[in-house]
Specification:
Oligomer: heterodimer
Helix content of chain B: 10-25%
Number of strands of chain A: 10
Strand order of the largest sheet of chain A: 8-1-10-9
Radius of gyration of chain B: 20 Å
Mean pLDDT of chain B: 84
Number of domains of chain A: 2
Radius of gyration of chain A: 25 Å
Mean pLDDT of chain A: 84
Order of helices and strands of chain B: EHEHEEEEEEEH
Order of helices and strands of chain A: HEHEHHEHEEHEEHHEHEEH
Shape of chain B: globular
Number of helices of chain A: 10
CATH class of chain B: Mainly Beta
Structural class of chain B: alpha/beta
Distance between the termini of chain A: 56 Å
Largest interface: A-B, 41 and 35 residues
Low-confidence stretches of chain A: 93-103, 125-133, 151-159
Low-confidence stretches of chain B: 166-181
Strand content of chain B: 15-25%
Number of domains of chain B: 1
Number of strands of chain B: 9
């Protein structure tokens, strides 16, 4: 949809759509390349230090080395750790039949899954709850075909659990996506959430009244209310730093340039090149998430390069902005109202006609 | 078989990093990583309390079940390995038992720091005993295993090289007198 105040679809200039004059800055964002993330959590600490975000609970969550669990009012960056029984990177280029869903053998799934429910925040709401059962794992078709040769395995190889050597971590730093069509902003009744001149989405703490509409509207579950004062909080893409020509704290702290900050057009180009490079190297499972301007939110300002299905990282596979169906819904509401009005008038008319008899 | 390693979020024994909420919340509690096979064998539950026992003492930790801990097969025997981070102590925003207490106070003669931290151990479900009960338990285990103060203590020096005899009584200043002594 084009023009002012569009509700969904591709949009070249969200800041312009929000009413900024033509000389506003270019749209900026993050490209998070999870293939080079080392899980150091420097982004989490840098974000909290710069933005004075309070500590988010001293809970051991039991999800690998992830003790943050999810994005929230007091965690604006979240590094997910997903353990998978696969080789790392080019040791195993592009086998078909990826293990999607959570990590681990059937035995560890049996041990971990029932206890995660009792952990704080139910194990952190990542995509790890749907662990496969031991039966499912046992019946999973092996990618290796046994041809019935007499010495299929090497001597002394794979005679038990000590043969378990394939392992990889998927580490990914999640953040607010700064959607092209931001549901949080669209539903905000006070105007506390606003589109900046950089086309990012920011909450104004002094205006937010804590109604919480944005929390249920966000298709990614990013924005959240701070328990002690009730006001909504999320990543501001370091709005204050942008004004001074600095990059956001997390991107500056990232030691591997997994988090890249820049103009969105340039980032998209860079991401396409990186994807092509990985595909050439045989990492066929690499994919971009939130890059496509034709998706349900019109593309993300912060998008990702992933090495498995989005669900594995706890990301929704097909996010949709709540306002996409608003026009159709109000049309139906209008028709229903018109029908009721007609029925009411009809009732009076028929009574009047009946009364004459 | 127990060994220790560090976590990214803490600095050495945690004396500095455990004072900081932003680092403490990222690794809030002492845990021991065990394989699912060992967890089943010893009745350990994921995130449950357990204690790791060596001939020195016992420390309490939460159980972390992970496939990263794979059992080894050595001479046909299955040997389970466990590892613990050692960043906790008695003060700070987060506290916990001191893992280094499990190991001997031994310096490597080449580099003069603590020797490689590896030991055999037991992992038992539930919190560890406290106070006199802990001492009694360790003492009983030592007796059962036949471990005395001499166990594993080998004084070895290079053949023919000058070295001080154990002459603390006659040489109270401790000064090295080489061949003359």
């Amino acid at each position: 949809m084009k023009g002012r105040n569009s509700l969904s679809g591709p949009l070249a200039d969200p800041a312009g759509d929000a009413g900024y004059t033509v000389d506003h800055p270019d749209r900026v964002g993050f490209f998070t390349d999870t293939s080079v993330c080392i899980g150091c959590k420097a982004c989490e600490v840098a974000c909290k230090t710069w933005n004075a975000v309070p500590e988010d609970g001293l809970d051991l969550l039991g999800m690998s080395f992830d003790n943050t669990g999810s994005l929230g009012a007091n965690s604006w960056r979240h590094v997910a750790f997903i353990e998978q029984p696969r080789s790392t990177g080019r040791q195993d280029p592009g086998l078909a039949g990826l293990p999607t869903g959570a990590s681990g053998s059937g035995l560890s799934a049996e041990a971990v899954e029932p206890m995660l429910r009792h952990a704080p925040r139910g194990g952190g709401e990542l995509g790890t709850q749907a662990l496969p059962t031991a039966q499912e794992t046992a019946t999973r078709v092996s990618p290796v075909e046994n041809l019935g040769m007499p010495a299929f395995t090497r001597p002394g190889d794979g005679h038990g659990e000590e043969g378990r050597t394939s392992f990889r971590w998927l580490m990914a730093s999640d953040v607010c996506k700064h959607c092209t069509h931001a549901a949080c902003l669209d539903v905000c009744p006070t105007g506390a959430l606003f589109r900046t001149e950089f086309s990012t989405v920011v909450v104004q703490q002094d205006i937010c009244n804590g109604c919480g509409y944005c929390v249920s509207a966000c298709p990614y579950g990013v924005i959240d209310r701070r328990p002690h004062d009730g006001r909504a909080q999320k990543c501001t893409l370091c709005y204050d730093r942008l004004h001074d020509g600095m990059e956001p704290a997390c991107a500056q702290a990232c030691p591997t340039q997994s988090i890249q900050f820049g103009k969105l057009d340039e980032l998209r180009e860079r991401a396409d090149q990186r994807l092509a490079q990985l595909q050439d190297l045989g990492v066929t499972e690499a994919r971009l998430y939130g890059r496509d301007p034709d998706d349900g939110v019109g593309g993300d300002g912060a998008f990702f390069l992933l090495l498995d299905e989005p669900e594995v990282y706890g990301l929704p596979p097909d996010p949709v902005v709540v306002t996409r169906d608003a026009k159709a819904m109000w049309k139906k509401v209008g028709q229903a109202a018109a029908a009721f009005a007609l029925a009411g008038i009809g009732a009076f008319v028929s009574t009047a006609v009946g009364g004459r008899r | 078989m127990l060994t220790t390693a560090r976590l990214t979020e803490h600095h050495t024994a945690g004396g500095m990093s455990r004072q900081l909420p932003y680092l403490s919340e990222l690794q809030p509690e002492l845990f021991v990583e065990v394989s699912p096979e060992l967890a089943r064998m010893r009745g350990l539950t994921h995130l449950g309390e357990c204690h790791v026992v060596t001939s020195r003492t016992a420390v309490q930790a939460r159980v972390m079940v992970t496939d990263r801990m794979a059992p080894l097969r050595i001479d046909g025997n299955v040997v389970h390995q466990v590892w613990m981070p050692y960043h906790w102590g008695g003060n700070g925003v987060v506290t916990g038992d001191v893992v280094n207490d499990l190991f001997g106070v031994v310096a490597d003669p080449n580099v003069f720091i603590q020797e490689s931290k590896v030991a055999t151990c037991d992992v038992r479900p539930g919190p560890r005993p406290r106070g006199p009960q802990l001492t009694a338990m360790i003492s009983e285990l030592r007796t059962r295993a036949g471990i005395t103060i001499e166990t594993g203590t080998v004084l070895s020096t290079a053949e023919g090289s000058p070295h001080p005899a154990h002459l603390e009584e006659s040489n109270p200043k401790g000064s090295y007198s080489g061949e003359q002594s």
